[in-house]
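Project standup — Tuesday

K.O.: blocked on the structure for the chain from last sprint. Re-posting the sequence here as requested.
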Amino acid sequence: MHIWVDADACPAVIKDILFRVAERLQLDVTLVANRLMRVPGSRFIRALQVPAGADAADAEIVARVASGDIVVTGDIPLAAQVLEKGGLPLNPRGEWYTSDTIAQQLTMRAFMDELRGSGVDTGGPAAFSQADRQRFANALDRELARRNNRAEPR
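H.V.: unblocked you, prediction finished:
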């Protein structure tokens, strides 16, 4: 299993959680971004810089993700592509994207884009909070514990 991070817009506190998880569980974590990312020196943590472009990081993640990999992203279209490849997309606010919810999320995203395109001020997402950080850590921890329990002999 590998954890991929759509890193350009990922909050620093989420990256810090992922860095600790990588070391503690010896999991590979790769941050993919259009700009150079600094990461701690670790054999489990990597940064991959892709060329500038609107969806270059997304395309790189989709090309590399394997079934069962976790992808941390707030990008709904990327989450949909990850689901199609059997990956598990997780929002930095701790919400898993699922095949049951992704169509509705894509529709809402398109609707909001249309509103913004017609000049309606839709505001932005709420500020990232301590509760968001905790939800993310808990969601990731539950998934990793579930996998670990499944891998242990009974």
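K.O.: great, moving the ticket to review. Residues 130-151 form the longest helix (22 residues). The chain has a mean pLDDT of 90.
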